[in-house]
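Consider the following input, taken from an annotated entry for Transporter (Dyella agri).
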Amino acid sequence: MRGRAGKLRRTACRLAALLALLLGAGTAAAQDAGPPRQSLDDAWWTGPMLANSAETLPPGHILVEPYVYDVASKGTDAFGSRAYVLYGLTDRLTVGLIPIIGYNRVSNGPNSSGIGLGDQILQAQYRLTRFHEGSWLPTLSLQLQETVPTGRYDHLARASDGMGGGAWATILGLNAQSYFWLPNGRLLRVRVNLTRTFSGDADVTGASVYGTAPGFRGTARPGDAFYIGTSFEYSLTRRWVLALDLFRSHGAASRVDGSTDPVNALPMPVHLQAGSSDAYGYAPAVEYSWTPNIGVLLGARVIVGGHNTTRSLTPAIAINYVH
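Applying the prediction step yields:
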């Protein structure tokens, strides 16, 4: 655990050093009498594939951003859709929800019996500060998410029907966003997300996503998780943006305790444990906006390695609409 915590600290330090380098580059560009600087209003963004914005919506405005994706790993395609539906409640506070659905196709067993609900997410974000041109202070926000266990996770006739975890989870996050002007005068938008997930327990009956068998009764305790990610968006033209996310996540060990009741026999105690996991990767994307209020994102998330994690490629497309 100490070694993994050290890796996470080193990752955070590298991100901080990179931001400091970008800040220095932006300051130097501002002091140098080079090309004219692109104005903030001239750049139209949809947002990168992964990193959340630190901004909040004006009161009464809405943002709708549906994603469609395929988490492709060895022998499995997890097709899904998640849509960000956000509303500006006050100038500093944005609330909303993230509905999720999915369908699993597997090569070594039956596919999902149909499209199913995943665990849904409720979200609130409170803005602490806002970026202003000429100031070093970024936009900073606190984010609270609550995972509602609506996805099917136990009583499974086929494993591919498992879409959720069965446990409530609270996610606390800190989002940061700032702008830098590169030597050619073009804008670079940078985001940093830090989140910590606190999971509750899930009552489990029968075959489940936790690897239990029919006849099982007990409790699953998913491990807490930590995530750090950053994104870079380069305003190539007013409408075209090149984006890149870098991320690393850590999940603590999870446990399952209970018993299996075989026919004509005494209950057998069951204790399962999945070790901690680490994953890291990147997500390149291209953004195109027709107007300041509507645009499209095309990208792919790549999990390239880690510990107790599955490598995967996730192509995705999203539409971003603000009104």
